[in-house]
From TrEMBL:
This is ABC transporter permease. It comes from the Bacteria. Coiled coil: none annotated. Keywords: Membrane, Transmembrane, Transmembrane helix. It comes from Candidatus Anaerostipes avistercoris. The lineage of its organism: Bacteria, Bacillati, Bacillota, Clostridia, Lachnospirales. The chain crosses the membrane at residues 20-45, 57-75, 87-106, 126-144, 165-186. The keyword Cytoplasm does not apply. Pfam families: ABC_trans_CmpB.
């Protein structure tokens, strides 16, 4: 058994950089699309309404779930032979830290919240909820024990020239649309601060990717109330 584990670990260590990048790209896509579907279904069940949970205005994908999947893969790729309780604890902590980081960055950079657990029981601040952290832990066990071995077996770098060309085209598409979405959100933040467009790109964003369109893609996005306004309300 120890020999088998040693061989498996050596296979992981000996992977080429290009194979690792290829694998991480598809982990990002698979987890991002799956996360979009899970959150969309959850909102339909919980709120009886359809709302987009995409992080991309051109493609149905959640970058939070995508990055979370990549992070989970990188941090647990050597843990698949560990005890499930250890994996559960590790993924619970990783999930909580990742959710907090994403929520905190959204608040500080864009001055918006994309989710808020403060109205739910067992929350820790706005961005961490204990039941969801435990869900990360359970998902981590399934991920490490069941999904990762399949990924390592099935996700192989394409060998034909056509499939490699298609992969590059899809990679460029994803990078472009994710960057465009991020720039559009930054421009929205600038508009809300009263900054007029300073160049042709900002003018095009104001015309084609306005606040109404962005809110249709991010229906749970809410502005953060500045501290000085909170103090006024309290008074």
């Amino acid at each position: 058994m120890e020999n088998v584990l040693r061989i498996k670990e050596e296979e992981i260590k000996n992977e080429t950089v290009s194979n690792i990048i290829y694998k991480l790209f598809w982990v990002y896509i698979i987890c991002g699309v799956a996360g979009f579907g899970i959150e969309t279904i959850w909102c339909w069940i919980d709120f009886q309404e359809f709302s987009s949970r995409s992080s991309d205005i051109f493609f149905p994908i959640s970058w939070v779930w995508g990055v979370g999947g990549v992070m989970l893969y990188l941090f647990t790729v050597k843990n698949r032979w560990n005890h499930s309780l250890y994996i559960f604890a590790k993924c619970t902590v990783l999930g909580a830290a990742f959710e907090f980081l994403c929520g905190y960055l959204g608040e500080k950079i864009l001055e918006v919240t994309f989710w808020d657990y403060s109205g739910m029981p067992l929350h820790i601040g706005r961005y961490i909820n204990i039941p969801f952290c435990l869900f990360w832990g359970l998902l981590g066990i399934i991920w490490v024990k069941k999904i990762c071995p399949v990924i390592d077996r099935k996700l192989k770098k394409p060998s034909t020239a056509f499939s490699q060309w298609m992969l590059r085209a899809f990679l460029i598409f994803i990078i472009f649309t994710q960057l465009l979405t991020g720039v559009a959100l930054l421009r929205m933040h600038a508009r809300q601060q009263g900054r007029e467009s300073r160049n042709y790109i900002e003018y095009i964003l104001d015309c084609c990717v306005n606040d109404q369109l962005l809110h249709s893609f991010f229906p749970k996005m809410k502005p953060v109330v500045p501290i000085y306004l909170k103090s006024v309300v309290l008074v």
